[in-house]
Amino acid sequence: MHTRVRRILRTALASCLGAAMTATALQGTAHAAPQAAPHAAAPPAEDPFYTPPSPLPAGSPGDVIRSREAVFTVDPFSKAPYGGVKSWQVLYRSESVKGAPIAVSGTVLVPTAAWTGPGRRPLVSYAVGTRGLGDSCAPSYTLTQGYDYEELFIADALSRGWAVTITDMEGLGTPGQHTYEVGRSQGKAVLDMARAAQRLPAAGLGDGPVAVWGYSQGGTSAGWAAELAKSYAPELQLKGAVAGGVPADLRAVAAGLDGSPFVALMFMAAVGYDTAYPELDLAKYLNDRGRELLKKAQNVCLLSFDGVSTLIDTAFKRIGDYTTSNPLETAAWQSALDANKLGSTAPSVPVFQGQGLLDEIIPFQQADALHKAWCAKGANVTWKQYTLAEHVLAALQSEPDAVAFLTDRFAGKPVQGNCAA
User: Fold this and answer.
1) What are the tens digits of pLDDT across the range 161-200?
2) 42-85 residue pLDDT tens
3) Where residue 40 falls among pLDDT bands split at 50, 70, 90?
4) Do the strands 101-111 and 85-95 form a parallel or antiparallel pair, or are they unpaired?
5) Mean pLDDT of all residues belonging to the chain
6) Where does residue 39 rank: exposed (0-12), middle (13-18), buried (19+ CB within 10 A)?
7) Where is the composition biased (Low complexity) (predicted)?
């Protein structure tokens, strides 16, 4: 059984490395000019930058609390800065799922070359996929180390002349537990990250056009940003959203993950929801084995030895192996999950939604249900399924489609979607 899991993990890692190599080849050498070696960055737990002032200064969501110049690199060896891009780490105001003011960390990346298109430089608020629960997984840190597995997707967006922002989301980097897969929190963090970038004077972005883009956990974040934008951040000139591999309905996702090789992702989401909704009281449902897993998982990063070990150790296990009773069968847990189910509101901007038909992590049926729910509410959705792709391959196959979709949205081209198909 463990051999099978290791084979799955090796395949996923090979796919990620293949994506990195392909993206590097496509981008050529224009950004590979030698640069001076950057200073070493400390992990968030050892870096006072990530600790917000208490209490938070007065302000509104998206206000920058503090910022500093940083390094963006795709080189994990020398950590040479990626050429032609200026980088800042920021700490900014956002809101929890319950509307409480919080501080969230993130990154702002801006090409140094002047924008040659019409109007102001476009901005993509990029939402990352699953990192883990530990602060050292925060993208604002991994992007300084050259081993962020989505760094070349980000670099591709930068090569188009777009500015890119990447939120760490609630509790990833900053003190406290990450509210993993709590969609309303993630959507707010994505929108407020765009606001923070536009309010960062050094970035020089102003109130230009904005788009959101994410896959997997990032697809949840992008989907929620698209649903919330009109009510939560109406001043943003949001032009479009890309949401791929979307865990839209976590009750359906949990049912698919229970007993699968990737059941650890469900356990991570349980921690995230328990953090966002303390009244759920996850601990009261756990047996001794569950309490041990909870303690181990609270600081785990998936792309680490501990993360791989946790995936292997939990593979093919079930909720009942770690609990005295199943919290997902209670009204309280079901209500919290349903409150973060996508599809209740039509996005106010065009959306591209892609999904692998053979996705072994995110069930195809619930993603299909999301696009149909959005279409039924009058949304402008371009839906595409990748017939021979599982989760990782769908991410790779959908990337060119995502970039093309955003290119057209920033160019002001109309799109009708394919809801009627």
Assistant:
1) 999 999 999 999 999 999 999 999 999 999 999 999 999 9
2) 999 999 999 999 999 999 999 999 999 999 999 999 999 999 99
3) low
4) antiparallel
5) 91
6) exposed
7) 34-44
* Cβ-count burial 373-388 (b if 16+ within 10 Å, e if not): bbbeeebbbbbbbbee
Closest among 403, 280, 288 to 352, alpha carbons compared: 403
Peptide bond preceding 55: is omega within 30 degrees of 0, i.e. cis?
A: yes
d(CA 351, CA 224): 12
pLDDT digits (tens, 9 = 90+) for 207-234: 999 999 999 999 999 999 999 999 999 9
DSSP, collapsed to helix, strand or coil, labels residue 263 as coil
Domains and CATH numbers, the chain: 2-249+338-410 (3.40.50.1820)
Max CA separation in the chain (angstroms): 61
Both tokens assigned to 301: 């990063």
Instruction: Show the tokens assigned to 189.
Output: 């963090």
Report the C-alpha gap between 337 and 259 in whole angstroms: 20
